[in-house]
Write a structure and sequence with these properties.
This protein is mostly helical and 1032 residues long. The protein has 42 helices and six strands. The termini are far apart.
Length: 1032
């Protein structure tokens, strides 16, 4: 039976409680048939609150109900067939050995099957028509009927062994003979083997399709302690009778009782489909969802109930469906509001928590119509005279002074403080803290926690000390928090006194000992600190020895008469036996010793590198050579470490000897502190077990930020000294390290590769890495700007700019950006590549643009990649850059098309206007042009627009005049060109009087002007330009 389906809105967040689209559609389509039924025993969805009305069942719907009932029975018989097959495979093939094995049904398979039943029947409101004749199974042969008769006669004669033998033979011949199972069960019942009798009755129930029989079997299984078997029977009962909500309730209660919370959750969610917003079900479901950490779903359910009761009881009062009495909120009272607010506060959705308390309490007070209070950003609606808060001046909303329960005000205080609205939160907290501390101690503690979270240690410490001063409200947690506040505000001696008090009360409190040791170390009392740390380490070793001793013992499981493995926890995986050690490999101890030695060498080299770094940056040759030697040692030790270059790069670096998270955070800190203290005391007697390397943020005591800085400087220095290939190899290798798979690290390394490639004139590498940046930051203009700025000038840069792979890549990005604006529905997010792509794309790569694995966007270890925001307006940069590529390739006609599109998007961009002018002039000079005069006129129009946008002062004057001169020179209008070039030179003369090195574009203009003078025979004028502007 297929257990997969589409996501259900109620249970999609848990892998063990998947829903399907059928789960919802059935509840709507099938409800109509129920209302037309003549059976008054069934209350279908059409009679629940919120349904529009009753719809008469149609003939086709009744036929669908019949087909569904047949499907259910066929599915149950399919289970029966599988059980029989398992029995035959496990037995010896004889009738006597056929039932000798205690059958074990897979719990996961049965639970998945039950959820299939829920999806198929969750909203079933089908009418219970007159029951069809019960299916009698296959037609029995004359031999089988005769054997059944003999078995019945043997049972009447009280010959139990003979009855068992005959009925087992009947089952061997025809397993679907239901009477044989029933008689066999009765025989074992008479023999006192209740478990086996129950097992056989369950087998018979697969053939009878009677919901009541399954209910009785569930009760019997539960009474005999076969809880998993009872869950299975309850599931089959609901399978046959989807209107029996009691079966779901019993199943959920039993699952909760035995600790199977996932089953309890999925079952109760199915009940909510039958009984939407039912408060007793919600109250039972809430602790289960909290235990499973599914707070978002819990908040969604309670928010839905809140909205429902608000719409049904707008006055804030209504009849309780259970008692019939008028109660606040019709049953959805203050406690439910507090639960919802607590959920939102825990999820960090403080705005929703505030709205819940404000709107909910207003609704319960019968003031739901006063929505004008929502316009106030503060909580003046609930001000009290004792608060002495002055607000509500002339023309403003006056405080409401409405009463507010202290628990609700506490939730408001928490939400306001955590959201950053400190003043408003303090006002509420002050009112709550005025209550009796003994009665409201939990509220006091939560307010203190909120202050502590906001790093308001003085306010939090005052509350913690208030609670800690009373024996009735004090606790270890309160005292530890009070000590932490004292430490954070600088009162180290007072904090130490509190920790000493905690240790005196609980000598085994290791956390307090470590905190006190840290304070002793700061207070320069290392002996006291070391004594505490050694106590903690000794305690840890005793616990480890105790765990090893208790883990050695074990007992085998006894047999069970249940169809299920009753002791199995659903979803738990059995631990495999450890693999045998390889004698040729180093032991853990040897590996740790080797790593400790390498760590010492790395620390020594790192200290020397840091000492030489300033001198290396000052280009001192001797220091630079020594720095390179030491840096090479560190770089090679990093690159040869296999743990830093795993195939599963997305998991990040877990340390040289990865262990559990608790060992990394506790044992590492304990051992490192002990080593540090002993070194300080001059008694280095404790071996450093390589614990520092377990910190995922460092490698051999050097942080990964410093490693990255070292690698980049090393590559830069190699490139400057003519060893670009080696520097490029080092940086490319670093890209594969699982320690640098975050987006920021990958970008930094690629920018370093681009930097080295620019220095070495390796512009193909520049284009390659810039393309990867563009892929990683879809719909972002900055990577394209990096590409353009990196290919500033020169023939090699121009060749790289014109490479076909780049132009095709940019064209694809342009089309995607255009599709995102015009038709966002045509894009689909590819989770593997973490990019948007066209829905109908064939996925065939261009032969000239084959992408390797590095072109794909890799999954970072630290999830920084979020979905790129789709653009909402056209982007001129993509089409402008593509047009410039065509312009550089002298494809002026195509360039005009894309540049005009960019002009439509950004008509006031001077660069776009200049490019259009150049493209128009270029096209006019080609032989294929048939409208040259029009193109030249168009070019001059764009040039004029460019001049108006670029400005008439400063640097813009030189640029505008030079470009006009260059255009006129291209057209052969030398007199006009000379005029504009001369203006550039005159402006440069004025600037050089203030700054002799500020030439601007004078040299370029002088060179072009000299060409005009030479071509027109004015050689003396050209020589004057050479002497003034073009001489070194």
């Amino acid at each position: 039976m297929d257990s997969d389906g589409a996501n259900d809105p109620w249970v999609s967040s848990d892998e063990d409680a998947e829903g399907s689209s059928d789960y919802e559609s059935t509840s709507d389509s099938d409800s109509s048939s129920e209302s037309g039924s003549g059976d008054d025993r069934v209350a279908g969805p059409s009679r629940l609150p919120g349904r529009a009305g009753q719809v008469h069942a149609t003939t086709s719907q009744l036929q669908d109900a019949d087909a569904e009932e047949e499907r259910v029975e066929a599915a149950i018989e399919g289970d029966f067939d599988r059980l029989i097959q398992n029995i035959r495979e496990a037995g010896d093939g004889t009738s006597s050995g056929m039932l000798s094995k205690m059958w074990d049904i897979d719990l996961e398979e049965r639970e998945a099957e039950f959820k299939d039943d829920l999806r198929a029947a969750s909203g079933v409101g089908r009418s219970k028509k007159k029951k069809r004749g019960r299916r009698r199974g296959p037609v029995l042969s004359q031999q089988v009927r005769a054997l059944i008769g003999e078995g019945n006669q043997a049972y009447v004669d009280a010959n139990i062994p003979e009855t068992i033998r005959i009925m087992q033979e009947v089952i061997r011949i025809e397993p679907r003979a239901a009477p044989a199972w029933s008689v066999l069960a009765q025989c074992y019942d008479d023999m006192g083997e209740r478990g086996k009798a129950l097992q056989l009755r369950i087998m018979a129930a697969h053939l009878n399709h009677d919901a009541d029989e399954w209910g009785e079997l569930a009760q019997q299984s539960r009474a005999q302690g076969y809880n998993q078997q009872a869950l299975y029977c309850y599931g089959k009962m609901y399978h046959l009778d989807p209107t029996n909500v009691n079966a779901l309730w019993d199943r959920a209660s039993l699952a909760k009782e035995i600790g199977d919370l996932k089953t309890a959750r999925s079952t109760m969610l199915a009940m909510l489909k039958r009984l939407p917003h039912h408060l007793p079900v919600l109250d039972e479901l809430r602790p289960i969802l909290i235990e499973l950490s599914d707070l978002a779903l819990c908040a969604e359910l309670f928010q839905g109930a809140f909205d429902h009761y608000q719409s049904v009881y707008p006055s804030g009062r209504g009849l309780d469906p259970e008692t019939g009495e008028e109660v606040p909120g019709g049953g959805f009272g203050l406690m439910h509001l507090l639960v919802l607010a607590d959920l939102y506060n825990t999820l960090g959705e403080y705005g929703k928590a505030i709205d819940t308390i404000r709107k909910g309490c207003r609704w319960l007070q019968g003031r739901a119509a006063q929505k004008f209070w929502d316009a106030c950003e503060d909580d003046r609606e609930w001000d009290v005279p004792e608060s002495n808060v002055q607000r509500g001046g002339e023309g403003e909303m006056q405080p409401g002074m409405y009463p507010l329960d202290v628990n609700a005000r506490h939730r408001l205080a928490i939400a306001r403080i955590k959201s950053g609205d400190i003043d408003e939160g303090k006002m509420h907290a002050k009112i709550v803290l005025a209550q009796d501390a003994a009665e409201y101690a939990p509220l006091f503690s939560e307010i203190a926690d909120a202050y502590f979270e906001r790093e308001m240690y003085a306010e939090a410490g005052h509350i913690y000390e208030m609670l800690g001063g009373d024996a009735g409200t004090s606790s270890m947690y309160v005292l530890l928090q009070a000590a932490s506040c004292r430490r954070m505000i600088g009162d180290l001696k007072e904090a130490a006194e509190v920790y000493e008090h905690v240790i005196q009360a609980d000598p085994g409190h290791n956390e307090a000992k470590m905190k006190l040791a840290e304070i002793y170390e700061i207070l320069n009392e290392p002996r006291k600190a070391l004594d505490l740390v050694m106590q903690v380490i000794a305690s840890r070793k005793r616990r480890a020895a105790h765990r090893e001793g208790t883990a050695e013992g074990g007992s085998g499981e006894t047999g069970s008469a249940s169809l299920f493995e009753e002791g199995k926890v659903r979803g738990a995986k059995a631990k495999g036996t450890p693999a045998k050690a390889n004698p040729n490999r180093l032991t853990i101890v040897q590996l740790r010793e080797l790593e400790a030695q390498k760590e010492r060498e790395a620390v020594q080299s790192w200290h020397r590198v840091q000492e030489l770094w300033p001198q290396m940056l000052a280009n001192e040759e001797a220091a630079t050579r020594e720095w390179l030697v030491e840096a090479e040692k560190l770089v090679e030790s990093f690159r040869e470490t296999r743990a830093l270059f795993l195939t599963s790069r997305h998991r990040g670096f877990r340390g040289m000897f990865p262990r559990s998270a608790r060992k990394q955070t506790t044992e590492a800190s304990e051992d490192s502190m002990a080593s540090r203290l002993q070194l300080e005391l001059g008694r280095d007697t404790l071996a450093r077990k390589g614990a520092k390397s377990e910190n995922v943020n460092t490698f051999r005591t050097i942080s990964f930020e410093n490693w990255l800085r070292l690698f980049m400087h090393y590559a830069f220095l190699l490139t400057r000294r003519g060893q670009y290939d080696l520097g490029n190899e080092v940086l490319r290798h670093l890209l594969y390290s699982n320690a640098y798979q975050s987006r920021s690290s990958q970008d930094s390394i690629r920018l370093a590769l681009i930097t080295c490639a620019i220095h070495a004139d390796q512009f193909q590498t520049v284009v390659e890495q810039a393309r990867k940046l563009i892929n990683g930051h879809q719909f972002n203009n900055e990577p394209i700007r990096i590409l353009i700025s990196s290919l500033g000038s020169g023939l090699r840069a121009t060749d790289a700019f014109l490479v076909s792979t780049l132009s095709k890549h940019l064209l694809r990005e342009t089309r995607l950006a255009d599709a995102a604006v015009r038709d966002p529905e045509s894009l689909r997010y590819n989770t593997a590549q973490r990019r948007y792509g066209l829905v109908g794309s064939s996925g065939k790569a261009d032969p000239d643009d084959v992408q390797d694995d590095e072109d794909e966007v890799e999954a970072p270890a630290i999830t920084e990649l979020e979905r790129a925001n789709l653009p909402t307006k056209p982007n001129p940069l993509n089409v402008a850059v593509y047009g410039q590529i065509l312009l550089a390739a002298k494809s002026y006609q195509s360039a005009l098309f894309y540049l005009l599109q960019a002009y439509d998007y950004a008509p006031h961009d001077p660069l776009v206007c200049l490019c259009l002018a150049i493209a128009s002039i270029g096209r006019a000079m080609q032989r294929q042009s048939d409208n040259r005069h029009h193109l030249i006129t168009q070019a001059m129009a764009f040039l004029t627009q460019y001049r108006n946008l670029r400005g008439d002062t400063g640097e813009g004057v030189d640029e505008v005049e030079y470009n006009f001169g260059r255009v006129f020179q291209q057209l052969g209008l030398h007199s006009l060109a000379v005029r504009h070039y001369q203006k550039v030179l005159d402006a440069a003369e004025l600037r050089t009087k203030a700054n002799e090195e500020d030439y601007g574009l004078a040299r370029e203009a002088a060179y072009n002007l000299s060409l005009i003078y030479v071509s027109t025979g004015a050689a003396p004028l050209a020589q004057a330009l050479y002497r003034r502007w073009l001489s070194l």
